[in-house]
Each structure stands twice: as C-alpha cells, then as structure tokens.
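Handout for the seminar on molecular recognition.
Each group receives one record of this type.
Step one: identify the two inputs.
Step two: read the structure output and locate the region that could contact zinc ion.
Step three: write two sentences on what you found, then compare them with the reference statements printed after the record.
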Amino acid sequence: MFVYGELAEGSRLAPGVETGLGGIHRRLDLLTDEWVVMSPARNVRPLDTADREESDGEENDCPVCPGGIELPFPYEAAVFENRFPSLVADPPPPPAGQLTAPARGRCEMVVYTSRHNACLGELGPVELGRLLALWADRSRELWADARHAFVMIFENRGAEAGATLSHPHGQIYAFDHLPPTTAAKVEAHRRHRESEGHCLGCDLVARETSSERIVAPNETFAVGVPFAARWPYEVAVRARRHGLRRLADLTPAEQLDLAHALRDVALRYDALFAFECPYLMVAQEAPGGEADWHLAFEFFPFQRSRSSTKIRASVETATGLFLNDVLPEDAARALAEPGIAAPPLDDRCLFAVEPEPAQVPLLLEARA
Ligand SMILES: [Zn+2]
Ligand SMILES: [Zn+2]
C-alpha cells in the first residue's frame, strides 16, 4: 500500500481481508488469436455504487473512505492492490494445456482523495497535482519491472462504466504482454516511420491542431475529438512535444497543462449532458522503448445525447467495426461551447515528479 500526502496520527495499514484469486488465468481465443482473462472471483466483489446524494454527509459503508475496511486511517490519496484482481504478480498455475497462461501483471486501485463526494473534475488544485504525481510515481515503478510489457492508468466513472465504488478512484493495470489494441498502435507507428520517415504522433498532433475538432486551447496538449472517433463524444488529450512519452517525462509546466486539460474535459462532459456523465478515461504511455509515441489521455463517454447512451451493440461487439452517431466535428463544437471551461490552475498544484522513486518527497509511507 502507498499513502500519498500528509499522514495523520493513528494511520495504520489495513488488516488482512479476504482476497479473490480463485481460478484466475488467461485463455487464448483461437478464432481471434487474442487472450481473454478469466477471473471468476471478481464476480463476488463487494459493491458500493450508492449515489453521492444518498451517502451525502452520512455514515456510509464505503470501503475506501477514511476508516473504511481498505483504508482504516486518515489519508489524502492512496494506492493499494486490488483484492479482486484480473492480473497478479504471482498468479496460480493455469489449467493445463496449450491454450492457457498465467494471468500475470498487477491491478492497483488509486483513491484520488479522501473526500467521498468528489470527482476528477471537482478535485482541488492540490488534490489534482498530487494525483498526477502519484500516477507518475506508480507507473514509473511498474514500467521499471521487467515482467511488465504495458502499464495503463485508467478510470471507469459511474456504475454504467463498470465502477463498483462511487468514491472518486481509478486503477492501474500492468500487463505481461502487449494487449491487442496497443500492439496495433505500435505497429501503426512503426509503419508510419517506415513509409513517411517521421513520427505518427507528431503528424497526428499537427492534423488535430489544424482541424475543427479542437475542443479547448492548451499549449502542451492537443485536446480534441479524434478524426475517426468511435464514441460520439470521445476526446483525446495528446502531447504536442515529441519525446513526451510518459507521465514521468512531464516538466512542471506540462504537469499544469495536463491537470488543467483533464479537469476541463471532465467538467465539459458534465456541463454538456447536465449530469455526472459516465466515461472511461485511459492514459496511453509509450510501451517499451517506442520513441515515436506521444503521451495521451483518451476519454470515452457513453452519452450520444443528454437522454441516450451509445451501446457497444451487435456490430461493434461481433465485428469490432464501430458505428458513430455523431460527427466528430459536431461533437467538438458542442464540447467547445464557451462558458463550460474549467478555471485555470496555478503552481500550487505542482508536486515533484522525480526520476528516482526514492526521491519522491510526497511518498511518506510504503509497504510492499
Ligand atoms: Zn468513500
Ligand atoms: Zn513525435
């Protein structure tokens, strides 16, 4: 467990609680040559998706509120291993056969703040800065582990997006192999370098910047709806600078711009749809030594209008071909509407993102 921020008197680690590893392994789908993780114990994990209103100010059963079963002490932000993981550092042997493999990797829970009634868009400047530094710190350590081929920070917001807790939180997965979409992106970057002689990320940023799909101005990141967006109001926050491959590469000014962009996009969704819009948010850091890769955060909201949601239905699920109901240019125009932009941030929200984990001053307590 890693606790970030001021650690109050009486802080102590959680007692051992039931974990769920039963039957965890990977299976190969011969038809698609893709791996599928089997994690049956996850189906019995506890749920606490009570609306924020329902638990407002009252005693609640939230396992990650200070005093809850996972974090039974005061904290400001925390990371711990998911008790019901899909991937683990030392997985049990898989069922015998050529088509199975151990489900090796890591699944960490990231609690953004001790405040139950908050969300990414509503984090204060210091909370937001701490979260960025925490992400950089954890991902750097996971990338440094030779067993990991890909590390992915993400957030599933809302019960519709699969979140089983309403407390503001996200997750980090480390994979021991490149997942299929990541492998395809690596291939695309390599092909582009071979055929065009330059970096696909640089070209994408140039395309976005000169398009009608930019949602908000940002010096460090192109914030826009992708040209071929799969989800109606999808947004990509992509680093402009070649060489900004991972969170650990962020300069202080770039940290501020990223914090602002993420808060801004999250607030724009809630303002546009007039409720707490469920979304998936995924950080795309460079796998391995890939030089042609720009750090990006991708947002996939489920709404296609205030009252209707985009379902990943037959065509998308069975064929992988997405049907998008909203033109990306129209989506960008709606999201860019003035008056719903987040207020700017200042350097109160900066935390050191150091190259060596031992030098990170905000990490006050750690236990393997
Ligand atoms: Zn809570
Ligand atoms: Zn580039």
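Reference statements: Helices lie at 125-144, 180-196, 200-209, 252-273, 314-319, 328-336. The longest helix spans residues 252-273.
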